[in-house]
Every structure is written in C-alpha cells, then in structure tokens.
Design brief:
With 401 residues, the chain is α+β, with helices and mostly antiparallel strands. Helices cover 47% and strands 12% of the residues. It has a single domain, classed as Cytochrome P450 (Cytochrome p450), CATH 1.10.630. Helix 10 packs across helix 13. The radius of gyration is 21 Å and the shape is globular. The termini are far apart.
C-alpha cells in the first residue's frame, strides 16, 4: 500500500544550472531515485522525472494546467498568454483547430516531393564542399526554410527566425542572468512577429493567411493571431533543428549505425525516434496544478509550478532497459520528446518528414561522414542540442562533388 506524504523530498540539484545543462542525465537519474516528485531548493518549482508520472501528468491537462504558461518565470509566462502552448481546453482546442487541416497527414503528404527536393539540393551543396558544419550549414537550414514558406513569411528578415525562436524557448527558463541578457532578443522577436501578422506580409494560401482568415470570419480573436503564428514558428523550427543535429552526430559517431542505415534506409525513421528519446530537444516544460493531486504517494498542492521533465522520462530505467544506449531496435515510439496527449506537438509530422528527407539525402550522397572537431553543445535552459558539428564527408560513388 502506498503511503501518501504531504512533504516531498527536497533537492539542491538545479536542472537549469550550467553544470547540469552541460550533461543532465546523471542529475535526472538522481532525481528519479529520490522520489516521484521532488521540490527544487534552487527554483520555485517541483519536478516530475519518472516516465509513468510524466506521461500521466501530460494526460491530465485539467489538473496540470498550461493556461498559466509553461515556463518558470511568471513575468515571462505572461508573454505566452493566449498561445497554443499556454492555454487549456476549450481555448487550446480552438487554437489547434485553426491549422489542424494544414498539419494533417494528408496535407503534409502533398509537401513531401517539395521537401525531398529541398533537402537533396541542400545536401548536394554541402557535400560538394567536402567539409561543413552539420548544424549551421545543414540541420538549421531545412526546417527554417520549410516552415517560413509554410507560414508565408517574406524572404527578407528570415535570418531572425531561428535566433528568435531560440530566445523565446530560453524565456521558458528561470529569470536568471542568462535570460535577462536575452530579453532584448525576446522583445525584438515579439515585435517582428507582430509586424508579420498582416495580409501585407503573409503569402495568400499560407498557414499565416489561414490564421488571419480565422480572425476575419470570427473563429479567432484578433489578439490571438500573433501568438498562434509565433507558436507554430517556434515549435516547428528550433526543436527540429536540434533533433536533426543530434541525429547526425549519432550517425557520424557510430559507423555501424551509419552503414546499417545506408544498407536499409527504411530504418531512418526508427533511428530518429530513438534519437529523440535519447536526446530530447525540449528537456522540460512546466505546468501549474489546478488542485491538489497525488503523484505516486506524494501530494502536490494546488497552485504549484511543476516541471514535467521529458528528457528524464525518456531515460527512465523503469520504462526503458539500458536507457543511456542508442538502440535502433528498441522501437521507442512511446517516447515523450514531442509531449503527449492534449499538448502533443502539432508539428511532429512535419519534423519527421523533414528528418526523413534530410537523412535520406545524406545517406544517398555520402559514403562516409567523420567529425573533425569536438562538437560544441548549445547552452540553453530548455533546448538540448549542438551549436556546431564540424564534419568531413566522402561523397558516395556516382554522386560526385
């Protein structure tokens, strides 16, 4: 029989500190072992780290609410108000419905040929150079181009998109020195998106135009247009960029894995899921409890800010055997890197399509890929990925340089 405790264990581990962010997985393991729910002494949050408990919390959106924002700081959560990330049903369902047809499998299927062609052209250009940065020259280019086109943004100003999305994700972390230093970027991005949310700037027939159509016909309030536009931009770019960068690193470091995928490209998608499990691009978001709730014997009071840690859940040895090993045969399709249930990532189908296109082109055009410098980790309180991944490639026979 489980005994209910009103007092959770307290830990001085700070999941947002530089030391933990550089390599968080031992800290996550420690937190999982301490208890199902742990109160952080360093931050105004409690944290859930075990797979079953994170999944249950994500499935219980009425109690673990997103409506008060999904970050740590109340001040920054105010910026998220009215967005698809920071809302509960029925508002959340309404916001998701505006673009649900655009992100459906049927609609995305019509984009496949175009995305495949973009990916192949991009890979051909970097392979011809022989050496390149697999993050900035490859992983960071395809998602930005694809999503900006889908949203309908003009070509001018697109250089602001990825840094802006990165800054917005950083605003989900604590209000510390790092975030204070990035506030000008956050506000500049909000200003840019406010200016872009107009008929003059968005291409007809685009996702952005569909949002404005919803405003015009009364399905959406005018105040929700920019937050919804920004939410799809942010969620569809930064995490995909880092997921691709992480996957390329795994492929470059493991020659057997690389050769296996070259021999059988049908495994690309399966490998991508294991990559997402092992290196979740979004480490954690927060929720606020709407009432007291018992999590595996520990009571979380009403109004508590709770970090649900996707990255820890995805390495929970209670759910995944040998969780720190990349195992393409694991079949980890139940990972939580894209969230789960009500707030499952709306853009995950697009992310998988972009991955399939880019990695397919890379395997087809490259015989061997080698890392030439120590990969540089991207310092970030929420997103885990690489800032640089310098590689050298040997072109596949018959493709040329």
């Amino acid at each position: 029989m489980t005994m209910t405790s009103p007092h959770p264990p307290v830990s001085d581990i700070d999941i947002y500190s530089d030391a933990v962010l550089d390599d968080p997985y031992e800290a996550y393991r420690t937190l999982r072992d301490i208890g199902p729910v742990v109160q952080l002494a360093s931050q105004p949050v409690w944290v859930i780290t075990r797979y079953a408990d994170v999944r249950n919390a994500l499935a219980n959106a009425e109690v673990f609410s997103s409506g008060a924002g999904v970050g740590v700081s109340d001040d920054m959560n105010a910026l998220q108000a009215g967005s698809v990330l920071a809302s509960d049903d029925p508002q959340h369902a309404l916001l998701r419905s505006i673009l649900s047809e655009k992100v459906s499998p049927r609609a995305l299927g019509k984009l496949k040929t175009h995305i495949d062609e973009q990916a192949d052209s991009l890979v051909a250009s970097v392979v011809s150079a022989g050496r390149f940065d697999a993050v900035s020259d490859l992983a960071a280019r395809l998602p930005v181009s694809v999503v900006a086109d889908l949203i309908g943004l003009p070509a001018t100003g697109r250089e602001l998109l990825l840094p802006g999305a990165d800054a917005m994700f950083a605003s989900f972390g604590p209000m510390d020195e790092r975030l204070v230093g990035r506030l000008p970027e956050v506000m500049a991005y909000v200003q840019y998106m406010t200016e872009m949310a107009s008929r003059e700037n968005l291409a007809p027939g685009s996702w952005g135009a569909a949002i404005l159509d919803a405003v015009d016909d009364g399905r959406l309030g005018p105040e929700s247009a920019m937050p919804l536009l920004a939410a799809y931009l942010i969620a569809s770019m930064d995490t995909t960029v880092h997921a691709l960068g992480n996957y390329i690193r795994f492929l470059a470091e493991d020659r057997d894995l690389w050769n296996r995928l070259k021999a059988d490209p049908s495994l690309i998608g399966k490998g991508f899921e294991e990559n997402l499990r092992l290196e979740s691009p979004a480490q954690s978001f927060t929720r606020r409890t709407t009432r007291a709730v018992d999590v595996d014997g520990t009571v979380i009071p009403e109004g508590t800010r709770v970090a649900v840690c996707f990255a820890s859940a995805n390495r929970d040895e209670r759910h995944y055997p040998d969780p720190d090993r990349f195992d393409i045969d694991r079949g980890a399709f139940d990972h939580l890197a894209f969230g789960y249930a009500t707030h499952g990532c709306a853009g995950q189908g697009l992310a998988r399509m972009e991955n399939q296109a880019l990695i397919s082109a890379l395997l087809r055009r490259v015989e061997r890929i080698d890392i030439t410098e120590e990969p540089r980790r991207h310092p970030h309180p929420i997103i885990r990925g690489l800032e640089h991944l310098q590689v050298a490639v040997v072109p596949a026979r018959g493709t040329g340089r």
